[in-house]
Amino acid sequence: MIHFGDFIYLTLFLGLVVLAFTDAYYGYIYPATYLIIFPTLFLTPLHILNALLTYLILLLLSRKYAFGLGDIEILAILSLILGLKMTLWILMIACLFCIISFLFNKKRSFRFIPYIAIATGIIYMVLSFNIFTI
Q1: CA-to-CA distance for 125 and 13, rounded, in angstroms?
Q2: How far is Cα 131 from Cα 134, in angstroms, rounded to an integer?
Q3: Nearest Cα to Cα of residue 70 among 106, 110, 42, 107
Q4: Of 120, 106, 108, 110, nearest to 77 (Cα)?
Q5: 10 Å Cβ neighbour count for 106?
Q6: Which of 4, 62, 75, 128 lies at a 20 to 30 A Cα distance from 13?
């Protein structure tokens, strides 16, 4: 039986898919595409302090290391909606996929939002099937 709770994060995933395709194709994130994720903010408890902390730390790290502002914004939004613990799991899995992609394709720069979208889908599937407790 399908519950309403299964569809709460549907707009988040649709938004991540759209953002992943625009980042992969254009290399740029249009701010209007964040509006797709907006309905999720009303359906979930928000972790505002986690999102601010994530945004500020990644913004400071981006001054020394190459990290795009769109990546920072997406990770802050995920931290706002999902919490810091799940966001760190998503970031770890996305980095793992990026490293694996680097081993096969020796490029120096990668579009990171597609990896974040795939990692978010994997984390959500793991949690929804209760395979592991995160």
Answers
A1: 12
A2: 9
A3: 110
A4: 120
A5: 6
A6: 62
